[in-house]
Amino acid sequence: MPVDQLIAALESEDGGLRHLRRLPPRESVRTAWPEWVPPEVRDALADTGITRPWPHQAEAATHAFEGRDVVVATGTASGKSLAYLLPLLTEAATGPTPGSQAGEGRTLYLAPTKALAADQARAVSEFQVPGLIPAIVDGDTPFEHRQWAQRFANLILSNPDLLHHSLLPRHRMWRSLLKHLKYVVVDECHVYRGVFGAHVALTLRRLLRLAEHYGANPTVIAASATAADPAASLSVLTGRPAVAVTEDASPSPGATVALWEPVTYEIEGEPQQASTLSETARMLAQLVRRGVRTLAFVPSRRGAEIIAAEAKARLGADPAADRIAAYRAGYLREHRRDLEADLREGRLLGVATTNALELGIDVTGLDAVLLCGYPGRLASFWQQIGRAGRGDTEALAVMLAKDDPLDTYLVHHPEAIFDRPVEASVCDPSNPYVLAGHLCLAAEELPLRESDLAAIPGSKAVAEQLCEQKLLRCRPGGRYYWIGSERPEVTLRGSGPMGVDIAETSTGRLIGTIDAAASHRLVHRGALYLHQGESYIVDDLDLDDGLALVHAAKPPWTTSAQEITHLEVLAERERLDMGDVALVLGEVEVTSNVISYQRRRIPSGEVIDTQALDLPPQTLRTVAVWWTVAPEALEGITDLAGSLHAAEHASIGLLPLIATCDRWDIGGLSTAVHMDTELPTVFVYDGHPGGAGFAEQAFRKWRDWLSATKDAIADCDCKLGCPSCIQSPKCGNGNEPLHKKGAVAILDLLLKAGEGPLQSTVLAPKSAAKEKEEDDLWPGDF
Questions:
Q1: pTM to 2 decimals?
Q2: Cα separation of 451 and 474, whole Å?
Q3: Which tens digit of pLDDT belongs to each residue from 449-494?
């Protein structure tokens, strides 16, 4: 069905379409094979229909073949895989004969997910290149298969978690791979940002260090979605210079991108926006009914479950209802693989998914993509809409705005999407809360040298602190040795325990898993938990054993956790003084505690009751940006606490516009008088130990950030405030108090103060002004 007809079919009686942008098709450009590609590789590729490469594939592959670290950063479905496959296929074709023990020229491929590694293994198996021996090695691989891979495979497909938890600790067992390691492929490297990116960067550096120890100097080949300065991003991950290939010569059928705002109804004089989840489910059902293969990207696991269930319900007895499913992390491995196969082979027509399917799993023939809200980053936006239109058919992509300040701003300011460059990936390997654990691990693997520490700013100071904690020992000659009693435990995907299992109370059946940090909010006693369209009530949460017990139920209510937060300023790094206003970047300690939860009726949202909880507080040392205002400048503000609170909510909602984060990566606090500043203050902080770079980006781009925040509030049609401007789904105080006009006035005051003279002060970084004796970098902060 033509795209224009699909859009007309999606329109409701009250409209909703706010902007339409046509992305023109792009013609394919082909080039000759590089001279170094042997005939047997060319023939094997020709057998799969690849007769000539696109220029970006040949350019990136040649960089790698000649020994230069390279990242190819082009659009979705642009054939980035061939760019890194050409050198390793060439190495395999010219290496040892099949059946012999693997020797020179081995490759380690790393994907951020098991699913992507499995998908790449399936794709590689189609190339009948002599000498190529691939093997998947991940957490599900039996020991005997790992042993076989160690000896014979010259292409090992894995992930950073396996590298970190198994291969590097047992590097002597893998010495053959490390000794002959020629290429390291880092696929979808744009996902390595924030604290996760810092962990992966340090893991990669540990890998390269061990490869050097065994006599190898592998070339790193990375693939990335379109990103700002991808070469610099790869250099941050590896600590080595890199080149980038960004000119995309692949064909594209073009796409129509629609920005959609769910219709607004007036209730008791206030505009109320229709549920974005319901609108997405409505569109998914309509597209599936018409045979349109569709992915609906949803920001939360729970949302994916709701949309899949509601879309099925809307189709009723229509057989197409059975061709809709949800897909997300937390499912058991076998279930995920079945869903991937059903989607790839066309048995499923509609899938509501989290960003688990954003990455490059080969799902051909998709016609449309729905985005249930802005995904938080432009890179993710373009990656998700690029999942449709693989072939000659024009794609349809629809972004439905959530009832949220950022989404509302974007659908009314489309230039902020279509005319703005993609963000750079941000990660900080020198974050001491991340670095300390990896220094311990590196020293346990192989004694640390002074040259190892010199490669990462601040690592010498962290190593010395670890010596004081009697975890490392510095021997004569400047080498650091691990002297702990057992190997350190560090998780790559967070700063705390690995996770909480969710199991049925009556049967013990494992339903899913959840991050330990999120368990306080989502699987506390009494919480309503959703899984594959089924709802469960949590009977008990045992944090010591990492287990939540649940029973199936379908109550007419949902739950939301209530949280209190205390923030202490530890040190200032930089500040801007602007008369009555000051803007500061510094270090803080945040203590939060989930103290209760509310039950709310469906669908009215009416509060039924509030139940107390007894959960331990969670403490976070991180980086924050904050601003203060002199009281005399606020004399016209009638509700100071509500005005500051509203400005805090909106500024958190708009921060993803200029930083590579989403609102769940950051937190905030506002107060009419803070105990440390002794002034009216608004804090916005990174939600990760040691910081993740988001608050610093906010400090550097504060004018753009706060100007967009003010515009989002002022342009909203509501009178007193709504989720599209100043209300927050994260608020632990039930969105009380809030004052819309006061927030605009305070933000206007800040922006006008910035037009005058500025006095900038750079203070001692990472000061220990309020350092506590009992606060160690290890082990409690991992």
A1: 0.77
A2: 14
A3: 999 998 888 899 999 999 998 999 999 888 999 998 788 888 887 5
Q: Which amino acid is at 454?
A: A
Q: Which residues of the chain have pLDDT under 50?
A: 97-100, 495-497, 766-782
In which residue are the tokens 């300390």 written?
436
pLDDT score of 391? 64
pLDDT at 98: 42
Query: Strand 500-504 and strand 479-482: pairing?
Result: unpaired
Are 36 and 90 contacting, i.e. CB atoms less than 8 angstroms apart?
A: yes
Q: Name the token pair of 66.
A: 């000649």
Output the DSSP codes for 729-743: TT-TTTT-S--HHHH
HSE value, Cβ hemisphere, 13 Å, CA-based, for 510: 12
Q: Supply 632's token pair.
A: 């005399």
Pairing of strands 255-260, 17-23: antiparallel
Strand arrangement of the beta sheet that strand 395-400 belongs to: 17-23, 255-260, 395-400, 368-372, 294-297, 350-353, 324-327
Q: What is the pLDDT of residue 334?
A: 76
Q: Whose structure tokens read 């500043």? A: 677
- Rounded Cα distance, 565 and 86, in Å: 53
* Integer CA distances (angstroms), 164 to 161, 168, 193, 205, 445, in order: 5, 6, 17, 11, 11
Question: Are residues 604 and 632 in contact, defined by beta-carbon separation less than 8 angstroms?
Answer: no
Whole-angstrom distance, CA of residue 542 vs CA of residue 391? 49
H/E stretch holding 496 reads none
Is 630 exposed, middle or buried (CB count within 10 Å of its CB: 0-12, 13-18, 19+)? middle
Helix H or strand E segment including 468: helix 459-468
Q: What is the pLDDT of residue 495?
A: 47
- Using the 8-state DSSP alphabet, how is residue 580 labeled? T
Give the separation between CA 63 and CA 523, rounded to whole angstroms.
Answer: 49
pLDDT at site 749: 95
Which tokens go with 314?
Answer: 């809307």
